[in-house]
Here is the input.
Amino acid sequence: MNVKNDRAAWLKGGSALCSITPPPSPKKNWRLVLLGAPGVGKGTQAQLLSERLGACHLSTGDVFRAAKCLADGERSPALDRALGFMRRGELVPDEIVLDMVGERVSCLRCSGGFLLDGFPRTVAQAEALERLLQREKLALTAVLDYELPIETIVARLAGRRTCSGCKAVFHIEGLPPRVEGVCDHCGGKLIQREDDRPEAIRVRMAAYEKSTRPLMEFYQKRGLLVTVMAGKVPDETFQRTMAKLKTLSPA
Ligand code: AP5
Here is the structure.
């Protein structure tokens, strides 16, 4: 399967509609959470998995970054506050994140399945997701936890470039675009994220250790945790992920 998803509804929220209708009754329906430290490669894997599995890549970080591009006055006060936390590398408060995900429940109901990247990130968010999915009579297939030494991660973040249009992720050395500064997929301009500055990277790593690592135990207890050692190149990590997923059966 090679699928291009439309994430308009996820990025815009509310009543926005996808331009691509998901298949009415797909045989396999993957509902995955991607866990791991900032920069471990969750977004890159979500991109590859989305193309292979047909499930939509839903990143909470992308929603906040999309909000940043709105004109002043178009953002709610809550979103303005969220962007302040993000710029400093801190976690956005749970209540703002949960409101934002709550406005987008239709994406979780999508018959194509989903790949949640960057959510949940605290135990309170994981509990809220669990209640939400129970209400919708949906179950997670698995939680993929990507692991990598911290020094490697910091080097990755420094070289990351992201498309300002379709949000595709590149790396100046590991995954360079065909033309410098230009997205291979949509021709958009590649930019460096504000929170990839060294001070913000330190704060993000500390927030991960304190708030997100405990989620491993949370999902381990539920029998959902699948650990994947991230490889030297994205394809190596992808092959390892697919090998682990082959042992699971989606809903
Ligand atoms: P978010 O956007 O979720 O960022 P993150 O978790 O910090 O993760 P990243 O996007 O930085 O990294 P990634 O793991 O996706 O790595 P990538 O694939 O890009 O969140 C940003 C902020 O938003 C948070 O700090 C917070 O403020 C807020 N936020 C979002 N959700 C929230 C929530 N639920 N609660 C509270 N706050 C929230 O890869 C990195 C680089 O490495 C790329 O250049 C890539 O090309 C390269 N690369 C990837 N894989 C490989 C590989 N195998 N080999 C070599 N290079 C590779």
